[in-house]
Amino acid sequence: MDTHPWQRPRSKSINLEKKFAERTTCHGLGHIVDQDVPKVRRYLWSIVTLAASVGCMIGCIQLLQYVLSFPTNIDIEIIHQDSLIFPAVTICNFNQLTKTALSEEDNRHLQTFLRIYHRKGAINKKDLELATSYFRNKTGVDFHLQNLTQDLGHRKDDIIVSCLWDDQVCGPENFTTIFTIYGNCYTFNSGAKKEGMLSQRGKGSAHGLRLVLNIEQYKYSGKLSYGSPDAGIRFAVHSTADLPEMDAEGMSIPPGMHAYASIPGADVIEGLPKPWGQCGSQKLKYFDHYSVSSCRREKEIDFILQRCGCVEPHHARNLTPCSPEIMLECVLPLMSSSNPVSVGINASVCPVACVQTEYNVEVSYALIPSQVVVNDISDQYNVTKIIENARNQRLNLTMSKLEFIRENFAFLDVYYKDLYLFKTIQKQASGFVAFLSDIGGQLGLFVGGSFLTMFEFFEYIYDKCFQQTKRSKREISRRMQSIREKRRPESMASSTSVRGNLSTNVHNFKVNESISSHNVRSNGIKSKFRRSNSEHLANIRISPSSID
């Protein structure tokens, strides 16, 4: 008896699995289907193969999780260089305005403005109106702190007494003026000059920057509103791409001191962008180079500019600085009620630059001058002439040369003590190629497989799908054939019955038709007979006398 199509033994399918198990390079499967070994050993191979497959799968999942965590490594390289790019050096005087060009009335009204700009204490609005009217009448224009500081602040021609770079003479013309919270500040090697950035070609102070500075303490205004209570120089060593954060990163030199700012080398940090790292960059509107400080400064500028129509004077650059009235009515209330998040300053908006250069400065100090070289220093740096100029400006100077130098002079040497480049590089710990290698290691360790083994599995799946498709088509064809075979006898019987019924109906129709015609003829004879009888009876009724 023939079995149903889908109940037939799947010998071909079994042969396909057995053939795959015997030929695959994946160890273990061949031993499981080997009929020449005892069943116990095949069961043992089945357990071992299953355990190895599970271990391989767990290892591959852990590798995938590791790759998706975007791991990184940190490589540190120390490279000795013949020369290193010299950093930018910015110097500021602790005192913001000099008293030589200011009258007592100027000082009184300036203190009103400076308390606003420096955010020191409460301000009387009437005092502000008086101060604004006073300077408008005196200068013919509205008061702006930046313009006043440029005119009345310490000038670089007066501060920089001597400048040597790599034992070559330099001067105030090699410094770029910038405006900070300390007023006028001056940057050496800012990168703004056409000749580009300077490089130090030998280690030691003789190959670096050496400055003799006159802090002009005899010109200090004596008003706390004009700056810091300290006397001396504030300086910062920074990358040419960064803005000098004088208040946060600056170091100080008191008068009468020689500061030795030695740099072990340049620290270059190279990071990775997301998702491996946190670094990034963006195009800035107000600055040529991206840095965290520049980005934060720009966000703060835009925040104030959009709401007040101007910016704080030390942020002005080419923008409109805020007048004292706007500072009092808009900027100060706005900034006091805001925080860095509301301003839009956070790590995601201003990420660290992907390439940063930092300088770890080591500062040591020595007292100047020694008594035996006072006259030499006085002659070399024209101290006598400086004293005479100060007296001509009606400044009371009754001190000796030694006292004058210790009260007003500061020496600053900035240099590399070693020409080393310290590179800290963040690199991807695992890439696509490494991931494939690790996966291959897991396959080889647990199941003895490889990339070609995976292709064998794909080939088996393809053959299996192809076989199933052919079997499905064959079963469908068999079912259709079986249905047609079942319907054929019924159709033949029904067609014979139809033909018999049709013949019988035709015969009955003919018999009925002859009977009908016979009946018609009989009915005609009967009609004629009835008519003759009727006529005969009528003749009898008409002649009764004949009866008599």
TrEMBL record:
GO molecular function: sodium channel activity
PANTHER family: AMILORIDE-SENSITIVE SODIUM CHANNEL SUBUNIT GAMMA, AMILORIDE-SENSITIVE SODIUM CHANNEL-RELATED
Organism in which the protein naturally occurs: Trichoplax adhaerens
Biased composition (Basic and acidic residues): 476-490
A Gene Ontology term for the protein's cellular component: membrane
Pfam families the UniProt entry points to: ASC
Protein name as annotated: Acid-sensing ion channel 2
UniProt keywords, alphabetically: Ion channel, Ion transport, Membrane, Sodium, Sodium channel, Sodium transport, Transmembrane, Transmembrane helix, Transport
Gene that this polypeptide is encoded by: ASIC2
